[in-house]
Automatic annotation (TrEMBL):
Domain ATP-grasp stretches: 119-315
Oligomeric and partner information: Acetyl-CoA carboxylase is a heterohexamer of biotin carboxyl carrier protein, biotin carboxylase and the two subunits of carboxyl transferase in a 2:2 complex.
Catalyses which reaction(s): N(6)-biotinyl-L-lysyl-[protein] + hydrogencarbonate + ATP = N(6)-carboxybiotinyl-L-lysyl-[protein] + ADP + phosphate + H(+)
Keywords linked to the UniProt accession: ATP-binding, Biotin, Ligase, Nucleotide-binding, Pyruvate
Record-given protein name: Biotin carboxylase
Lineage: Bacteria, Pseudomonadati, Pseudomonadota, Gammaproteobacteria, Pseudomonadales
Amino acid sequence: MLKKILIANRGEIAVRIVRACAEMNIRSVAVYTEADRHALHVKRADEAHFVGEDPLAGYLDPRQLVNLAVQTGCDAIHPGYGFLSENADFARICEARGIRFIGPCAEVIEKMGDKTAARASMIAAGVPVTPGSEGNLADLDEALQVAGEIGYPVMLKATSGGGGRGIRRCDSPEELRSQFPRVISEATKAFGSADVFLEKCIVDPRHIEVQVLADGQANVIHLYERDCSIQRRNQKLIEIAPSPQITPEQRQYLGELAVRAAKAVNYENAGTVEFLVTGHEIYFMEMNTRVQVEHTISEQITGVDIVQEQIRIASGLPLRYRQEDISFRGYALQFRINAEDPKNNFLPSFGRITRYYAPGGPGVRTDTAIYTGYTIPPYYDSMCLKLIVWALTWEEALNRGSRALSDMRVQGVKTTARYYQEILQDVDFRSGEFTTSFVPDHPQLLDYSEKRNPNELALAIAAALAAHAGV
Ligand code: ADP
Ligand code: ADP
Ligand code: MG
């Protein structure tokens, strides 16, 4: 078993990894830049090392991080998500220096991180993919030609994209003409690659993804699916496991496809295979070769600790479970509480958390790195907390979500929490049938009043009545 792990990340995922280490009696080493001097992952890890004044550079410097791992006597690095987690060079440098990279090998990261290469591998493995360009597009003329063949609307996508960026829907040749240079410039800035490709836009799809685990001994299993259709601008807001809107046959087929996809590339460690589902059609979209933000809900329904499994696999141990050992129970929802103002176009709202109160009670989990008095720095992702609820039935899970959201207090910054309360009350959402168009199709859910929540209001009325009665 690994003995000491350097965590090349920050925020809630770094804290999540520290927790896994602590439960496995593994020492954890945090890294931090100046802006994160007071961050929770620094306080929670067994050791913490400063990696520079710049808020980001230290988290993105493979050589410095691997050197630090060697110097501090670590035998592995956990990259978390984002940052260097899907950087093949980082995995390669780790390997060269005798540090275990907790994830798949560099070649697999490369193959799956490149969306066109991944599509090619999946086609070869017999996994259905969305119709699209064969590889990257040479120029606008080729884009127009391919789009003409597959038919509009099309999705223009950055080949190295991630985090919902570098994707544009184009409904006509005119739109494709105007979006083409934009996507290229966004891709170059965000991902350091100008490569783009086209695929058919699936209208009103569901985003369904399957969590897989694969060990170094060719055992590959899945932990069922997550429904991530509740998105804004291709970014997930609320995730649900299992999906309330697929049939048992589709569930079985999705699991088989995901395992087939992982086996086809000799996958090792935890990964996620993302699909678009519409009616009875299922298309492979991409594979993420890392732990995902929403891994939590699969943990809640299956009881498997995915981060601990990642560490065990990287230690060279076989999976502890066979597919038939995996069952799921109830429903879990994860709410990404972002420090953003939904009423102001989801503008990031950074600053000091004047008060944080974590919700509790049965079936409630919070993964976060905020605390009362903490100042959210403006340099990173705006997601500041993940609220996860679990209950036996869909309806109970919805009610538990509402209750937990109203228990919770995150004051000092604007958050998306209140908006999620509105979504939870919406009949279309509660019906359990929705597509990736749910958010744009329900703009009225942003018309909530900022006033107090119903509980507070009830208490205020009770207090006023009591005062009036003279008690
Ligand atoms: P998940 O796929 O786990 O749900 P997201 O797509 O929300 O995660 O991305 C998680 C984090 O990783 C975000 O901060 C996002 O900006 C970052 N990220 C994801 N993919 C990439 C990428 N290819 N390049 C840079 N950052 C990425
Ligand atoms: P990222 O790497 O940024 O996560 P994805 O390829 O996973 O990018 O796409 C992100 C989201 O964009 C999907 O969850 C889906 O909502 C939307 N999307 C992507 N491709 C298509 C498509 N071909 N048709 C319709 N929606 C799509
Ligand atoms: Mg994706």
